[in-house]
Amino acid sequence: MTDRIRLGKMTNPVRGFLHGSAAVVSGAGMAVLIARSTPDATRVVSMAIFGISLIGLYTASALYHSVPWRETWKKRMQRVDHSMIFVLVAGTYTPIAVNVLDDAWRTVTLSVVWGAAAIGIVQKIAFPQVPDWVSITLQTTMGWFAIVPFLELVEALSGGAIALMVAGGLSYTIGLILLAHERPQLFPRIFSHHEVFHILVVMGSLFHFLMILWYVVPHDRV
């Protein structure tokens, strides 16, 4: 394995700074979503869940990738980092399901994605020996579960909202594919496929944030 360039004691500085910055921006973004959703308490809570899931994912990732953990704690932080992916996927669905879908689809969607997230987190924490492809498959399936209520979403939202939703999903999915195939290598000591993956994750989050800000926040709840 190629030795990574460090910044002082900071391991993987590109990933650390990228996701540390994303965590801070996510906090500001959550404040905007909540402010735009006030005084609708249900809408505010759904936006807070999305915002907290973003902050949680990027904070965990920044800490895991930048702090020189001892081996035991490194494994623990990796489990937290990977578990937060499930939280983010379910957290992203939450404001969309709560504010756009009708009662039946809302219940189905939230039950499926949060149930799957719980299963994924338990697997990561309690059964870390399970092959990575299992959790990656579950995360991808969760992410594209939106295909199931797709007609409902198309009927309720504009083309711009759907385009942003799909763009976000594609960003996450392409990132996972590149990560799994360890391509492109680029500059292995400082910027490789792993950094490309993290950039695509941030892009996916941005697309979904803009969709929620521009189209879900002002949407009249069913």
Describe the structure.
With about 220 residues, the protein is mostly helical. The chain has one domain: Rhopdopsin 7-helix transmembrane proteins (Up-down Bundle). The chain has eight helices and no strands. It starts with 12 loop residues before the first helix and ends in a 6-residue tail after the last helix.
What characteristics describe this protein?
222 residues, mainly alpha, Rhopdopsin 7-helix transmembrane proteins, globular
| Residue runs with pLDDT of under 50 for 5 or more positions | none
Q: Please compute the radius of gyration using only Cα atoms.
A: 18 Å
CATH level-3 fold name: Rhopdopsin 7-helix transmembrane proteins
User: What is the CATH class designation?
Assistant: Mainly Alpha
Which structural category do the helix and sheet elements fall into? Answer: mainly alpha
The CATH architecture category equals Up-down Bundle
